[in-house]
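Allow me, if you will, to draw on your knowledge of protein folds for a short while. I have a record of one protein: its chain in single-letter code and its fold written as discrete structure tokens. I remain grateful for any guidance, and I place the record below:
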Amino acid sequence: MIENIEFKNYDGEISQGCLALEGGAFRGIYTAGVLDYFIEHNLNLNTAYGVSAGALTAANYMAGAYGRSALLILENRNNKRYVGLQAYKESGSIVGFEFMFNDLNRQYPLNEKVLFSKEKNLNICATNVYTGQAEYFTNHDDSYTFYKAIRASASIPIVSKMVRINNQLYLDGGCVTKLPIRKAIEDGNKKIIFVGTRDASYRRFVNKKEIDLVKVLYRHYPNFVESFSKANEVYNQDCDLIDELVEKKAIYRITPSKKVDVSRLEKSIKKLSDLYYLGYNDAKEQFDKIIEYLKK
């Protein structure tokens, strides 16, 4: 099915509205399917908030890069420069950012004029390791800082080195907040479309082994350890908030219509491809309702 996805750059009329995008590493290919349908049907929202993989997908969407998020994964998942030890050697991360931002960007160039447009507001969440707090960078920062922030936002703890930005150290935004919904609301956005990478009923449990490992590896950063230890609890609270907001029709939620059996670093191209098309078809089925929500 990969051959049916063709990379194209779009630059359509901008619409008022806000996206809030969950991460989830390669599960983010669901979001890629949703947003490709949006791009293809000229729904170019002016504001987006992304965490981790959601940050990467948000950047591609805001640049109008149809197919890019999916093709980066589907064509390169088994390339050792993209995922694995070779990627870590080159990039300091289990995911090969050097390969992604250099080699793959030449193959699938982002339209930076569109991405950095003053009419668009892209907010990227990363975790400050010193403070243990979520911080947001935008496409109105200088491009060097912005791309560093995307890299930081998707730098999975334990298997990635910390990213330095302006003399501060950062890791995956999901270490603190996996769902950027509260920030989107706090900033005054009225029409918010939340795209999740798990079904709406999903909740997280405390992973004691992972927390214990983080306590050892990041023992010199107590604020980070504390925030990381609470992240799953915060996630569940945010899911409950989203349930309430959906019930009140204050936001629109689109999440997988089927249970997701895809791991964070999934190797099966078929599973990844199926998840992409699930997102695409979920967006297709709900598109009229989404447009109706945005117009109210």
Q: What stands out?
A: Strands lie at 8-9, 14-21, 44-51, 65-66, 121-128, 133-138, 163-165, 168-172, 192-195, 252-254. The longest strand covers residues 14-21. The chain has a mean pLDDT of 94. The two ends are 37 Å apart (CA to CA).
